[in-house]
């Protein structure tokens, strides 16, 4: 009886998790998409007379202005564009590479498999930030390089995940029979195996969009990521830090934007994981 | 068992080999250190550059430079910094303890918070305490570590004026950096503790312990916690890499004189013996800890060995 009551409460909580996650993520996406309509003045309009306006005072600048008199809210929304762009494209790239590698190495095994898995070991030993420092020191920063770096550092996760599933799926009857009647390999990989293992991949993707937004912002904050002239959350925080003493809002709002966006995606990912895996085996 | 040990050891050696080889090779593309060194020295002729390269051993073929580097790794001689000529091992010797101290303190903070909270969540599974802890942990997972650091500075140094905003000087300067990484780690660890406890709490010896009338605290902290110590130590060990990565970033916010600050200064000035040594030392440590965890786990749980 008590467990049943707890379960209902649990289910209600799950729905809440989804609603909150969808609201946060949806809200940020809408703000970014309609940023042109919301801020017709543009994000780089310098208004030196209004510099360092505190938030909630002047409704022309609801979140205040930065040391150059630029509107913080407009810049936060513009920064969201960069974050979403980096988050989505890097995950898309890593998924494509990782899934193909995982399918191939799990299905064919052998030398290729060993190579991919040892490569995964190497990447596990090198924390992202060290890989990033080395990579950026060599090829330089910038938007494109940041995305490439994220793809390079993350495809392994998908490859390992997919490979694990393929190893167990390939012994199952439906794959064995497909092979027996002579279905082509690429059809087995993409039409028979892929749909059966895509669930956990989607969960990982959601969580990684969140994670990559965090990573991009820390790289940019450190001056290794996106060009500081483009408004981005990490870049705004790096600027704002200098004015922490007398203009807290310049550092607070971009960080809050990161927190809320990442939280929204994490809530969705969490909800998705539990929906796809009702036994809660994988939920940690 | 011997086979398992050898296999794991060889894998670790392979990882170190690939990391050092890649880093040493790749780092050569960051630019000509001779040019960097010659900057500000007035007029520099091509002969000067050649002389500098010879002095640094840069005219040697790559493999012989790499061999020198590996030899240096065993004798703890990583060459000299391009800036000021300080031996790199000396720089590392002063930066590494600062970083390790921070790592250790963060781990302690995180364990101190996450074990009671994780146990609480597991006991109250599905109830409001569990949900609250879950949401808190999700919020913690979503925090950018550097922003958390900035917010702590804002609160404790600027508004309350309790703690120094940066530097490493006494216990007070320790609190915020350790708290930042401790909180970030706690977000993951609470979930790990909860999962491990949930499994343990279902076992029969817990039922027996309860049946014989032990106090709940004793059941949880003495019987249950001890039994999930092994998976927990493993998780904590495997986090080591992520922990070091996080510390590298947090160090910069707090101007902490550790490996992260050293690495970033090295990037900015193309001081590549230093950068190479920092990355090598950190990845060596991570590989070593992972190897220890693997071996410890293999010793305790024979099923891992046969895999």
Walk me through the topology:
The complex is a heterodimer of chains A (284) and B (307).
Chain A: H1 2-33, H2 35-38, H3 72-108, H4 110-125, H5 128-139, H6 143-169, H7 173-180, H8 185-221, H9 233-241, H10 248-276
Helix pairs in contact in A: 1-3, 1-10, 3-4, 3-6, 3-8, 3-10, 4-6, 5-6, 6-8, 7-8, 8-9, 8-10, 9-10
Chain B: H1 2-27, H2 33-38, H3 46-56, H4 62-75, H5 88-123, H6 128-141, H7 145-159, H8 172-201, H9 204-211, H10 216-227, H11 229-238, H12 240-254, H13 259-268, H14 272-300, H15 302-306
Number of strands of chain A: 0
Give the N-terminus to C-terminus distance of chain A in angstroms.
Answer: 25 Å
Query: Runs of chain B with pLDDT <50, length 5+?
Result: none
| Strand-pairing-aware structural class of chain B | mainly alpha
Radius of gyration of chain A: 23 Å
Shape of chain A: elongated
């Amino acid at each position: 009886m008590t467990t049943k009551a707890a379960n209902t409460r649990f289910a209600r909580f799950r729905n809440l998790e989804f609603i909150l996650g969808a609201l946060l993520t949806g809200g940020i996406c809408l703000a970014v998409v309609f940023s042109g309509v919301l801020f017709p003045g543009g994000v780089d309009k310098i208004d030196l007379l209004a510099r360092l306006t505190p938030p909630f005072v002047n409704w022309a600048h609801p979140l205040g202005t930065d040391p150059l008199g630029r509107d913080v809210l407009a810049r936060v929304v513009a920064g969201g564009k960069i974050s979403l762009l980096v988050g989505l494209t890097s995950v898309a790239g890593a998924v494509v590479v990782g899934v193909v590698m995982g399918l191939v190495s799990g299905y064919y095994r052998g030398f290729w498999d060993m190579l991919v898995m040892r490569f995964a070991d190497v990447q596990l030993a090198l924390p992202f930030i060290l890989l990033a420092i080395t990579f950026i020191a060599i090829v330089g920063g910038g938007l494109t390089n940041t995305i490439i770096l994220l793809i390079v550092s993350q495809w392994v996760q998908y490859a390992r995940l997919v490979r694990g599933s393929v190893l167990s799926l390939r012994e199952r009857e439906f794959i064995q029979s497909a092979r027996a009647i002579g279905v082509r390999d690429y059809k087995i990989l993409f039409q028979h195996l892929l749909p059966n293992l895509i669930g956990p991949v989607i969960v990982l993707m959601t969580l990684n969009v969140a994670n990559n937004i965090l990573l991009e912002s820390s790289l940019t904050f450190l001056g290794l990521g996106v060009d500081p002239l483009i408004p981005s959350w990490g870049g705004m925080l790096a600027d704002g830090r200098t004015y922490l003493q007398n203009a807290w809002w310049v550092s607070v709002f971009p960080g809050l934007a990161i927190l809320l966006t990442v939280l929204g995606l994490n809530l969705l990912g969490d909800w998705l994981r539990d929906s796809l895996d009702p036994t809660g085996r994988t939920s940690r | 068992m011997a086979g398992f040990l050898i296999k794991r050891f060889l894998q670790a050696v392979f990882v170190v080999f690939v990391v050092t080889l890649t880093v040493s090779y790749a780092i050569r593309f960051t630019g000509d250190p001779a040019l960097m060194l010659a900057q500000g020295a007035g007029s520099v002729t091509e002969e000067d550059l050649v002389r500098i390269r010879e002095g640094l051993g840069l005219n040697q073929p790559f493999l012989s430079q790499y061999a020198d580097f590996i030899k240096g790794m065993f004798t703890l001689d990583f060459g000299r910094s391009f800036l000021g000529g300080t031996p790199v091992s000396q720089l590392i010797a002063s930066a590494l303890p600062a970083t390790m101290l921070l790592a250790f303190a963060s781990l302690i903070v995180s364990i101190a918070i996450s074990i009671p909270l994780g146990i609480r969540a597991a006991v109250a599974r599905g109830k409001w305490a569990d949900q609250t802890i879950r949401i808190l942990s999700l919020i913690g997972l979503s925090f950018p570590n550097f922003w958390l650091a900035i917010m702590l500075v804002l609160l404790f140094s600027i508004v309350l004026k309790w703690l120094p905003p940066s530097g490493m000087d006494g216990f007070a300067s320790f609190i915020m950096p350790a708290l930042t990484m401790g909180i970030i780690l706690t977000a993951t660890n609470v979930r790990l503790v909860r999962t491990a406890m949930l499994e343990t709490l279902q076992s029969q010896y817990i039922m027996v312990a309860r049946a014989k009338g032990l106090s709940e605290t004793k059941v949880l902290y003495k019987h249950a916690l001890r039994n999930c110590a092994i998976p927990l130590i493993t998780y904590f060990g495997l986090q080591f890499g992520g922990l070091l990565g996080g510390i590298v970033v947090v160090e910069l916010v707090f101007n902490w004189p550790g490996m992260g600050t050293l690495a970033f200064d090295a990037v900015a000035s193309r001081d590549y013996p230093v950068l190479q040594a920092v990355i090598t030392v950190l990845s060596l440590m991570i590989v070593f800890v992972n190897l220890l965890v693997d071996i410890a786990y293999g010793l305790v749980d024979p099923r891992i060995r046969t895999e």
